[in-house]
């Protein structure tokens, strides 16, 4: 609906009245229920979790934009992503949804918490606005005390976030960058915003080269094997080739 200044959240919803920030399928609850019942991973997967049937119905409250993004994510094997928000100066990382559904805030780390904390730190420490010693608080949360990063659910719970969906339904690790106190910066301020984030974006993209990479091949034919499941000891979240 655009950037009308009549309210802080105006413009957040689509014309159909859907908040895209909460519109992805909740895969967290299914995973956590299965974990509580000791079904993971032998009976319920710890990755590539299928989308619930109710979410795929034509009358489900799913925006066409959300369906298009999911189709995009399924067609291309992304492994690293960031989405950009405004209104704060902080980098958040999954999980975005609290495990205790009645809590508005709760530290809820993923099985890859160390990697996510690293990714968030890479962006935050190279962002000129976040790293500035003269930066002011946007509101009342002093994120600078925590290195300008926070677990999303430990800030405020967001069921149906794209970050959680990416992590649980694809190979993609995704963070959210709250890159400015100003939700609606003036056009004249955009060059400064670009300078604040240019190096952060480049350094963040370079992190795609971290870790182990290669090709899983058939021992006899030497052909690559698609959808081979790769498990790492001590990390209850697999990935696929």
Automatic annotation (TrEMBL):
The active site is at residue 178. InterPro entries: CARBOXYPEPT_ZN_2, Peptidase_M14, Peptidase_M14_domain. Residues 1-208 form the Peptidase M14 domain. Its cofactor is Zn(2+). The keyword Kinase does not apply. Keywords: Carboxypeptidase, Hydrolase, Metal-binding, Metalloprotease, Protease, Zinc. One of its GO terms (cellular component) is extracellular space. It comes from the Eukaryota. GO terms for biological process: proteolysis. SUPFAM superfamilies: Zn-dependent exopeptidases. PROSITE patterns: CARBOXYPEPT_ZN_2, PEPTIDASE_M14. This is CPXM1 carboxypeptidase. The lineage of its organism: Eukaryota, Metazoa, Chordata, Craniata, Vertebrata.
